[in-house]
Amino acid sequence: MFSKEQISLYDQSLGRVTLVGAGPGDPELITVRGQRALREAEVVIYDDLANPELLKLCPTARAIYVGKRAGRHCVPQEETTALLVAEAQAGHHVVRLKGGDPLMFGRGGEEAHALAAAGIPCEIVPGVTAAIAAGAAAGVPLTHRDHASAVVFVTGHECAKAETRVDWAALAKTGATLCIYMGARRLPQIAAALTAGGLRESTPVAVVTNASLPTQEVRVATLGSAGELAPTILGKPALIIVGEVVRLAEVLTQASALAVPASGVVELANVA
Ligand code: SAH
């Protein structure tokens, strides 16, 4: 939250923007602060990965959809950013609701930057990012200390700029668990690049689609066979986890079947 002093630094006639992480899909996975921001919002700008159920928290707010179903393929990022600035300059409290965490591969950083350049107060409310939700969904402890001491969040989307292009061979040598966003389409090429970089073909891979939603699916393969999964996951949000920690999934999935939802207690002690 902003202090009075911070707000007085800005033009009082301006509105403000709160960039809110909606979490991975399940509406219960938004933070308490995110819920409060929605309840206080006058305008909500949202897209596909944010669950529209969350709009029930702000029934009187004007909701503006800027996702892929908005007539065209997608509202261009510059238009969304300009809309945020314009709504705030009109004096509104705007919530920009973004799937997962607003700064994780979501271009929230660009939006926050544009707001700062326009002198508009902007608060960022973090969210549960897809990699964390996918680990929980698949029962994969991303940094189990016996198997991985690092975790990498990486995009599988081929970037045009050479400087920011992913060096898969370098990642293959880190021993880190790899959490790959936006990698479904290029899964065969990514798996090939990782094995060429030194990871064994037997390295386990989990692919979690629609993590945290009732439509969630978990598929487990190896780097050698992962390419075959690509056609079954296209068109769904998919998070790919690569690393030895994926072998632990079975144990934790059994444990979550023993979970007592009312109290949230998981009887790990009952698991062999
Ligand atoms: N800001 C978001 C990521 C946006 S990039 C976050 O923090 O999670 C979009 C990519 O995120 C998708 O292509 C997919 O790889 C991943 N993703 C988002 N939601 C997901 C979900 N519920 N299940 C699996 N992957 C998801």
TrEMBL record:
Tell me the domain of life. Bacteria
Which segments constitute the Tetrapyrrole methylase domain? Answer: 16-225
- Which GO BP annotation is one of this protein's? methylation
| EC number of the protein | 2.1.1.107
What InterPro entries does its record include?
4pyrrol_Mease (IPR000878), 4pyrrol_Methylase_sf (IPR035996), 4pyrrole_Mease_sub1 (IPR014777), 4pyrrole_Mease_sub2 (IPR014776), CobA/CysG_C (IPR006366), Siro_Cobalamin_biosynth (IPR050161), Uropor_MeTrfase_CS (IPR003043)
Which pathway does this polypeptide act in?
A: Porphyrin-containing compound metabolism; siroheme biosynthesis; precorrin-2 from uroporphyrinogen III: step 1/1
Q: Does the keyword Methyltransferase apply?
A: yes
Q: Which Pfam families match?
A: TP_methylase
GO molecular function ontology, one term from the record: uroporphyrin-III C-methyltransferase activity
Q: Which UniProt keywords apply?
A: Methyltransferase, Porphyrin biosynthesis, S-adenosyl-L-methionine, Transferase
Q: Which PANTHER family match?
A: S-ADENOSYL-L-METHIONINE-DEPENDENT UROPORPHYRINOGEN III METHYLTRANSFERASE, CHLOROPLASTIC (PTHR45790:SF3), SIROHEME SYNTHASE-RELATED (PTHR45790)
Q: Which family does it belong to?
A: Belongs to the precorrin methyltransferase family.
Name the chain's protein. uroporphyrinogen-III C-methyltransferase
Q: Which organism is it from?
A: Horticoccus luteus
